[in-house]
Design a protein that fits this description.
single chain, Porin, 2 domains
Length: 488
Amino acid sequence: MIPYRKTALAAVLCASLFAAAPLLADDDTSNAALLRLIQQQAQQIKALEKRLAAVEAEKSAPAAAVAAAPAPQEAAEAQVRNAVADTQQSQIDTLQAQVAQMAAGGGGGGGIDWSGGTPTFRSPDGFFAFQPDLRLMFDASSTHGSAYQDRNLTGTEGRELRLGGNGKVGPFGYRLDVDFQGETVSVKDAWMSYNTHAFGLPVDFYLGNHLKDRAIESSSELDNLPFMERGAVASVLESVNGYYGLGPFVKIYGSNWHLGASITGDQLNNDGAANDSIAYNVRGHWNPLKWDGGFVHLGSWYYYQKIARDVASVNNTPTIATDFNANLQVSSGSIADPHRDQGYGYELAGVYRSFWTYNEYGRRRIQDDSGNVYDHKATSLAAGWLITGEKPGFDQKRANWRDTLVLSPVTGGGLGAWELAFRYDRFDFGDVAKGSVAHSYTYGVNWYLTDWSRLMLEYIDWTTGNRVGAFPGPDSGNTIGLRAQLIF
């Protein structure tokens, strides 16, 4: 009977593996191979059972003889049962550990992670990663009180409709975002990065179309700002080739400071019929004071731009309220035959627990081919309070606005995060012959439902005095803006 006992033991051991199969049923994708192995073992068990039954039928007489002396057989079977029980529990423990490891990410961080709202795909060794990006911003706007009826507009728009993705291959990163706003397709972020250390400090290298590191609001993504639109300093000091530029970027970080630099040409939509306008940009910040729950921020930036010959004039017309109302803009006056463009600015900001403030001043100097120099100036003063106790999203390392993390999201039965925000903006194009001066007061209430969704309400009291255009002369009024955004 010894051979038969061995066969029975093998069958029971295989059966123990089959019994553990339900433990794996919750993760079909990660454990498919293991389940197939167990199913194969189950088939082998059935074959062994048939063989055992046939042998027992042939050996009925010896079996009866053995039954006459039950004590030795019962002792042997007890040993088999004990061995089987020990082995079965060991196999189950092993399988449970493997399932737990695979559910946590496949050992080394592999698998799919949904904690950020969209799936992040990672290889088992963590070397490869990819995450899709989605940005949806829908705005409604209504303007009243203007002396020009064509400015009193009410309507809706898709402010940002962006789709893309980001990821990494070892120390190399990448990102590509395409915006479908205004029923046109434009590429925003399109870059590669390399993260390393130099002189014991973290350094980020970028190559591609990237948001320039210039001023607080200019270097922040629109969906992270506490306001629906960028303010006066960002829009007045925007260079000829815009917020983005194509070229190399570098950023180095210390414990309480950062320094960034870039050399960029035009954005990706250059048609290749003329030279790029080349911009040289540098920005740095320092936190002279840091404590638990707060810090003080000091920053400054400078850029110089050689303007290409195909740029016939510079005529900046920033919005003073919401992006929807194209009739409500500040006219800078046209500067013909521009030769070079340079600007500089200063930043003072701070965070104290749930309070934040930032103040910016900037000046832009444009020189034409005749040597005449024209100044554009702007000031932005802002402050806010997260009344539900969250930490402001101002990043002391990168010196720009990042995500606001909600303490009690509505998806968990909480109230979300509530924020009050205020900003004063002054647009000054008075140095140009037909330039205007304008200012606005923005009062906002933001409701962060989760880390990735937000509702915004703004009331903007504005005054402008364009000297040229369809609506010349002093004018004032108010605009109400609403936004719903979902950002992954």
